[in-house]
Design goal:
The protein has 327 residues and is α/β, with parallel strands linked by helices. It is built from 12 helices and 12 strands. It folds into 2 domains: 146 residues, Rossmann fold, CATH 3.40.50.2300; 145 residues, Rossmann fold, CATH 3.40.50.2300. Helices cover 37% and strands 20% of the residues. The strands form 2 sheets. Strands 7-6-8-9-10-11-12 form a 7-stranded mixed sheet, sandwiched between helices. It has a 5-stranded parallel sheet with strand order 2-1-3-4-5, sandwiched between helices.
Length: 327
């Protein structure tokens, strides 16, 4: 196993002393957290990462803060209900995971501070008006630069040199920015004379027929970061593997679940960093004064067991660059 951090952009280190908000007779501050994936192993891992981040700032759940979790599982209705419940219960800060969830929460309140994680295009989507000084009640941590699409394309070419066509899968309803990833993939694909096509699905029932339809037209699949693809990652992986597709995914938990290869940020790192912003907000800093930060940790993971099962030889150079090799 090899660990390596890729520095994409630095949004400024969180500053300020690590002080507890606990005082004699003072109630814990109420924090609501809406996690975009399901209440499963990945969702619970994100919750633990957030609590680890709180402890790093001397905030203990049940003592200094009371953290109330909701999991949307990729459902906009569940995310909406969660936002209504948490705001109605008096949440003083809400941590919102993914672009659709943030959009729903920000429409529900213009006063309660919101710290977002996993938003691909906070400026373009209108969530903030400035990255350096967001203003209003919203700030947080973006998850990707669209240029990463070129990196995914390079990995596809490395895994399958003869590839001539690749599909990019996303849900246009939950990832309206998906076409910008496609543009980055296409720009890189042109250098290899590879054709890029879009594959969109809005319901889990559409995934298998969509991939089946791709088979005569494409040898490879790139899955874009999206609350929908994250919520249904196991189904996507099982379908892609059963059709022996070369597939590159956006998060390491895809590779750990059996996906061939992933390259992207560490979602847990964003939740830990979000806890630092929550600490500063409950200490009195306005959310709009905290800059939106870019990811600082990127990981390449390769599942060699899956590669062997698919008959894919992983180049030694790619293995050497991997942060995690899953066997």
């Amino acid at each position: 196993m090899r660990r390596r951090d890729f520095i994409l952009a630095a949004g400024g280190a969180m500053s300020g002393p690590r002080t507890s908000t606990a005082q004699s007779g003072r109630r814990p501050r109420y924090i609501g957290v809406i996690i975009g994936v399901a209440d499963d192993a990945e969702g619970r891992t994100r919750a633990r990462a957030f609590e680890e981040g709180l402890r790093d700032h001397n905030l203990i759940d049940g003592r200094d803060v009371r953290v109330d979790y909701r999991w949307s599982g990729g459902s906009r209705d569940r995310a909406h209900d969660a936002a209504v419940e948490l705001l109605g219960a008096g949440a003083e800060v809400i941590v919102a995971d993914s672009t659709p969830v943030v959009a729903l929460v920000s429409r529900a309140t213009s006063t309660v501070p919101i710290v977002f994680v996993h938003v691909s295009d906070p400026l373009g989507s209108g969530i903030v008006s400035s990255m350096a000084r967001p203003g209003g009640n919203v700030t947080g941590f973006s998850n990707f630069e669209f240029a990463i699409g070129g990196k995914w394309m390079e990995i596809v070419k490395s895994l399958s040199p003869p590839v001539s066509r690749v599909f990019v899968l996303f849900n246009p309803r939950t990832a309206p920015y998906g076409t910008q990833y496609v543009s980055a993939v296409s720009a890189a694909a042109q250098a290899f004379a590879i054709e890029t096509r879009i594959a969109t699905a809005q319901e889990i029932s559409e995934i298998q027929p969509l991939i089946e339809a791709m088979l005569p037209l494409s040898e490879a699949l790139i899955v874009a970061p999206d609350i929908f693809t994250g919520a249904h990652h196991r189904h996507i992986i099982e379908t892609a593997n059963s059709r022996r597709l070369v597939a590159v995914y956006p998060f390491k938990y895809f590779a750990r679940a059996g996906g061939l290869c992933s390259y992207g940020i560490d979602p847990l790192d964003l939740f830990r960093r979000a806890a630092g912003y929550v600490s500063r907000i409950i200490a009195g800093t306005a959310a709009g004064e905290l800059p939106v930060q870019a990811p600082t940790k990127f990981e390449l993971a390769i599942n060699v067991t899956t590669a062997s099962a698919l008959g894919i030889g992983v180049p030694p150079l790619l293995l050497a660059r991997a942060d995690e090799v899953i066997e």
